[in-house]
């Protein structure tokens, strides 16, 4: 009898872990895992590649700021267009297939770059693919998932994304160890990194096959929009608009994570220059730190996304932005390279608290027929702020040093927190088949507010 009880408890535990995660959600998770494995074979090593002088005598902080700012802004424009377009055609898979395919093809070409603008152009092309796929992919996750499990589904997707981001740097470490030899000079290190970059084509190719052969469109909710393309905010309520304002303020201080890697690499090189030139050991430390960071992200994002389904999205986002501000202050005052390890571990908590949860709140605040547009506007806001955020951060970092750069980013995060804390009202959580329609409840609450009355969750359900 006890064995049966133990087996039942085990089955219940596994069922609880996968409850609400549909076939499409698992497949999108696999795709994100493969894509990030390919991307993170390159991403943490690119700042090191620049510091080796591989592309000429350039300022690494300025190039990183320009590269990431232009890339994310380009991606943002296409996320908005793809979001509106996918609402019009009511299909998601074609955007996802083309987007992931383009990124997988161009990303390894960094290994052939010979001038500073080559990785900038390649990164922009990579982000064009991301722009095409992101909003349709997020809508597909929402449409493939029961409402009461959306936070969990988005969290699972980000968790698989981060699992790929753990495996990618470890693959890079394996290639560095296998192909590195002595690599005692900067030109030898440069040649080694180029070979690692080119090998990233393999996970991208497998990712394309998974989408083409197995991913399927879900049934789209809501009516198909009519008329010309619309990018405005008029069809969305004030909660959504103030939410975008808070996201905009936060993103203006949220530059690329490459600057965190760059800061750690600078301290590592300054502390032990002899070891830096002795072989591949110093190179290996950077991707290992990045893998460590993504391991912590992977462990936090799914459970915290599921927690938002019970506690609400806002409180987790607010806490996450506080963590972000504290971590950036930590990097501002960091003096030793070993301090990057605990700071990255805490920084992972910020991602767990916000990544999937921010997207779930977008869906909560949008009407079913406008989710693609709402997700596109969200990504557009983030991306349009990315260019000034990364460019300004890079300029301040290069001219004034890390303390002013990381300090102003922390201040903007706290200002954004004030906006969503006082101006965004979160709709109630869904409660199974008899749960609330968050969009309808939000409209009813706003109408009651204009009439000078209040409406509770119980009153709304009674009226229905």
Estimate the helix proportion, in percent.
Answer: over 70%
- CATH level 4 superfamily: MFS general substrate transporter like domains
Q: How is the quaternary structure best described? A: single chain
Structural class: mainly alpha
- Counting DSSP H or I runs of 4 or more residues, the number of helices is 19
Instruction: Provide the CATH top-level class.
Output: Mainly Alpha
Rounded radius of gyration (Å) = 23 Å
Mean of pLDDT: 79
Total separate domains? 1
What is the overall silhouette? globular
CATH architecture: Up-down Bundle
Content of β-strand: under 5%
Low-confidence stretches: 1-12, 430-439, 449-458, 460-464
Sketch the major β-sheet.
none
**CATH topological fold name:** Growth Hormone, Chain: A
